[in-house]
Design goal:
This protein has 9 helices and 5 strands. The protein has helices at about 30-45, 70-90, 125-150, 170-175, 180-190, 195-200, 200-205, 235-245, 255-265, and strands spanning about 50, 95-100, 155-160, 215-220, 225. β1, α2 (about 70-90) and β2 (about 95-100) form a beta-alpha-beta unit.
Amino acid sequence: MFYIQITADRKQFQGNPGELAVYHLDLCSLKSVKKCAKNLVKNESAIHLLINNAGVMMCPQEKTEDGFDLQLQTNHLGHFLLTLLLLPKIQSSDFGCRIVNVSSCMHTFGAIHEDLNLEKTYTPFKGYAQSKLANVLFTKELARRLKEAHIYGINVYSLHPGVITTELGRHFSSTLFPGASTVFQTFMRPILKNPEQGAQTTIYCSVAEEAANESGLYYKECGVATPQWRAQDNQISENLWNQTCQLLNLESDEDFQRFLKTVLDQINE
C-alpha cells in the first residue's frame, strides 16, 4: 500500500478536499510497479509523501512472475523499484517531502544472505526477517545517497508499527503449525494494537515536526529507536543496494542523479 498527496490544481478535486485517486499496484509484478509509477508521474503534479506499507508475512515458499521469492519482492524489491521510479517526481515537489518504509521489529532476527531468494535455505521466518531488515537498510542507504548527491528536502524513515490485529499472520497455521494463527492471537492479545493504534508511528514519521530534520533513522512508538547491528553497518547497506540493483537489472552508479535517470527510462520503454 502507498499513499500520495493529491494537489488542488487537478480539476476533479477542486472544492472537494479529502478525495482519493486510486491506482492499481501489484508488488509481485515489476511490470505492474512500472505501470503504476508511470501513471503517477504522468497524472500527479506532485508527490509529497510516499508510505511503503504493503507486505506479506511468513508465507509458503513461492516465486513471483518475475522469478523472485514472494516475500523478497513484495516486501523489498517492489518498494525499492517504486521508490526510485517516483523519486524524480518527489524531488520536483515542494521541499519537505518524506518517504516512509514500514519495517518490523522482526528485522532484529534477520540477515542479508548471499542468495537473497533463499532458493535452497528458505524458511518462512528467515525470508520475512531478511525482507524486514532490507527495509531498514534501504532507508539508511537511500538517505546516504540523497545526502551525498546534495538532494535536499526528501527525508526517509523506517519503522516498527507494533503488533497489530490485521490479516498479516494469515499464513501462520500453514507455515508454522495447525492453529498457529489462533494461538498467536491468544497469547499476544495483551500487546496487540488495533489498526488505528498501529498507524501512529507511521503517521508520526509522515508529518511530525520533530522528525522534520531527521533522515535514515529507525523508529518505534513514535520515537527514534536503535535497530540491530547489521542495520547500522554501512557496508551491509551498500552491498544490499548493489545486490538489489543487480536483481532488478539496474546498473548502480555513484552519480545518483544519473542513476535515477536510467531507472526512470525503464517506465518509458
